[in-house]
Design brief:
247 residues; alpha+beta; Metallo-beta-lactamase, Chain A; six-stranded mixed beta sheet; 6 helices; 17 strands; 19% helix; globular
């Protein structure tokens, strides 16, 4: 399988939950609001023998040429956005779901018109009812009337090689994914396992719905990943988007 990180850049985010671009070469974290976190926004593409998979969809912004950044990132890596076959969504917070849809000629359309979007049913229902700033309903509401949407429930399989499992912990119905092909196993933990250091160290995050459960899951995944030689994908890691357990 081929893994391609699709970095949208570094950002700081504080209790206002606004994502502010951060230039690693010039900006200073200490000059940002107290408590600001420095994160990467980084969807991933995985090319398998069956699919072109997109894991989460980024912030959904356009670049200076008025091209969606996620479309530009795909094109820069030789992938036509229309060739994406499946979009696997860990949850619907705005930094993961912003690229689900976009405005085109005054109309909101799905960003990956030929792809099937997979999202946990309860997460979708919860997000539609939620008025907190972590969710922007217009990003994903279009899926309600779209043939592109398929709901997942609990733990299960997609096409017999993608496993989805509700982890909760970061938000009530957050889900994680394993993709397995030809003896290789890739793990995407979304915002329960967003950075390598959180896998390596015990850490309870105040921004999690259940920080203790997040920490416990990360420790479990670390142990399983070491035994089974998983490839870990980290959505918010500035330095290490992909981590492979060496044999």
């Amino acid at each position: 399988m081929k893994i391609i990180p699709l970095s949208e850049g570094a950002f700081t985010v504080d209790k206002t939950k606004k994502f502010i671009p951060f230039d690693l070469g010039k900006d200073k974290l200490q000059e940002r609001n107290a408590g600001s976190l420095l994160v990467e926004i980084q969807p991933f593409v995985i090319v398998t023998s069956k699919d072109i998979l997109l894991l989460d969809t980024g912030l959904g912004f356009a670049n200076e040429k008025d091209i969606l950044q996620i479309h530009q990132n795909l094109s820069d890596n030789g992938i036509n956005p229309s060739d994406v076959t499946k979009v696997l969504l860990s949850h619907l917070h705005k930094d993961h779901a912003g690229g689900i849809s976009h405005q085109k000629n005054g109309e909101r359309v799905v960003t990956f018109s030929n792809a099937t979007y997979y999202i946990n049913r309860q997460e979708f229902e919860f997000a539609l009812q939620n008025t907190k700033s972590s969710y922007i309903i217009e990003d994903f509401e279009i899926l309600k009337k779209s043939d592109n949407l398929k709901f997942t429930d609990g733990t299960g399989k997609i096409n017999n090689y993608i496993t989805h499992e509700v982890s909760g912990a970061h938000c009530p119905y957050h889900q994680v994914f394993w993709i397995e092909e030809n003896g290789e196993k890739i793990f995407f933990g979304g915002d329960v396992a967003p950075q390598l250091q959180q896998i390596k160290n015990k850490f309870i995050a105040k921004y999690d719905y259940d920080g203790r459960k997040s920490m416990q899951l990360r420790q479990l995944w670390r142990e399983e990943g070491e035994r089974e030689k998983w490839v870990f994908l980290f959505y918010h890691d500035i330095k290490t988007p992909i981590f492979t357990n060496e044999s």
